[in-house]
Specification:
This protein is an alpha+beta fold and about 425 residues long. It contains 14 helices and 18 strands. The protein binds 4-amino-1,4-dioxobutan-2-aminium adenosine-5'-monophosphate and magnesium ion.
Length: about 425
């Protein structure tokens, strides 16, 4: 991309002393010592110290430097010099400087509380920490796409306005649809299932919405959902797709975003083991037993909550699967295990520290069983007429999964809270900004 002769700060760090360079960006730090003004410039690639000095800068450059408050946008030109006190050991001694957009009294000065920062999210997203996350997120999304492309999946575009629940009525967001009720999609799954009859293997990245009552550090109301569906695939096939996808994206981040991980104080060694598949597998039953040994008051048929998932994660260094959940506690579309009709051919992928990042299953492909399961979940088969057609006309064994993109990013970037995995998080009772 031509940049009109401007270099990124990263490129300037690679130049020899005496070289000339033009840069542009925003003022990250500012210090006025009278005869010298130090400006640390921030751009998408990093930071660079600029110095305006009575010694070598024209007088108007020093004057202009005094207008360059925190977060003002500036363009500058100067000569590269080494100085061990500068970040990265390099500085630019200014010959030209222009403030393009002033910034008087930038509202974020450091040390503010979380509510204040969230109210100013549109400004906070400029922070160096969050910038590293956006860069990692970019690589993650590209890696997901690359993986599906390399495996011959078709990318498709499901709707967001829907008529019925996929993942239970309790977390549906209602929308007024010309006097009728519509819902924001919880999952594209049912639509992806419809598309495998022509394309066999499909995937989509789309927003999903969950009106989760629980306020946790891993729940958003609106998140990005990476979903795939494969005709002719059984549960084990699908688990292989999931682990290869996750291992591939993890490898990509380790190959391309080491500096960003370092900035976030993340050790690559934590992620290295996840490059290798297969990932460990335990059954739901084994998980319950293990939790009871760890002192949890839990019995067969109970859901695994955040605490349980965290405790199980302590035993692993890599992502791991939990399989064969009781049919009753899982979604209506999951296939009954032919070996044990109490169980579903369902799996979750969990990662240490975060818990569930993927939910998937083989789908019930038998018409009668599906109707029976819809009723067992207190849903109305009439709401799923079109979905039942998929079992009437050329039903086929198939499986699929959904991965929470922000959950994955939370894990890979080592974030304490899911809100920092997405620029404008929707969580708690706020929509601003
Ligand atoms: O386990 P879930 O509910 O599964 C489904 O929606 C399936 N229909 C997907 C499919 O098979 N096509 O959600 C899938 C993943 C979870 O594992 C989690 O990572 C993420 O979506 N997720 C959330 N992420 C952030 N905030 C929330 N409120 C989330 N709810 C689910
Ligand atoms: Mg789930």
């Amino acid at each position: 991309m031509p940049r009109d002769g401007y270099l990124y700060t990263r490129e300037v760090h690679g130049l020899e002393p005496g070289a000339r360079a033009r840069v542009r960006g925003w003022v990250y730090r500012y210090r006025d010592l009278g005869s010298k003004v130090f400006i640390v410039l921030r751009d998408p690639e990093g930071i660079l110290q600029l110095v305006a000095s009575a010694e070598y800068s024209p007088r108007e450059v020093l004057e202009e430097a005094r207008r360059a408050d925190i977060e003002a946008s500036i363009v500058a030109e100067g000569v590269v010099a080494r100085d061990p006190r500068a970040p990265g050991g390099v500085e630019l001694r200014l010959e030209k400087l222009r403030v393009v957009g002033e910034s008087r009294d930038f509202p974020i000065k450091g040390g503010e509380g979380i509510d204040y920062l969230l109210d100013n999210r549109h400004l906070w997203i400029r922070s160096r920490k969050l910038t590293q996350v956006w860069r990692i997120r970019h690589t993650v999304l590209r890696a997901f796409r690359e993986y599906f492309e390399s495996r011959g999946f078709w990318e498709v575009s499901p709707p967001i306005l829907t008529q019925a629940a996929v993942e239970g009525g309790a977390t549906l967001f209602k929308v007024d649809f010309f006097g009728d009720v519509a819902y924001l999609s919880q999952s594209a799954q049912l639509y992806l299932e419809a598309l495998i009859f022509s394309l066999e293997r499909v995937w989509a990245l789309s927003p999903s919405f969950r009106a989760e009552r629980s306020r946790t550090r891993r729940h958003l109301y609106e998140y990005w959902h990476l979903e795939a569906e494969e005709a002719w695939a059984h549960m084990e096939d699908e688990m292989r797709t999931v682990e290869e996808l996750v291992a591939y994206a993890t490898k990509r981040v380790l190959d391309e975003r080491l500096e960003e991980l370092e900035q976030l104080r993340q050790k690559p060694e934590r992620l290295e083991p996840a490059k290798k598949t297969p990932y460990p597998r335990i059954t739901y039953e084994e998980a319950i037993e293990r939790l009871r040994k760890k002192g949890f008051d839990i019995s067969y048929g109970d859901d695994l909550g955040a605490d349980e998932e965290r405790a199980l994660g302590e035993d692993y260094e890599t992502p791991f699967f939990i399989t064969h959940f009781p049919l009753r506690i899982k979604a209506f579309y999951m296939k009954e295990d032919p070996q044990d009709p109490e169980k579903a051919l369902a799996f979750d992928l969990l990662v240490p520290g975060v818990g569930e990042i993927v939910g998937g299953s083989e789908r019930e492909d038998d018409y009668e069983k599906l109707v029976q399961h819809i009723k067992m979940h207190n849903l109305d088969p009439r709401d799923y007429e079109w979905y039942l057609d998929l079992r009437r006309y050329g039903s086929v064994p198939h499986s699929g999964f959904g991965l929470g993109v922000e959950r994955y990013i939370m894990w890979i970037a080592g974030l304490d809270h899911i809100r920092d995995a997405i620029p404008f998080p929707r969580f708690r009772d706020r929509l601003y900004p």
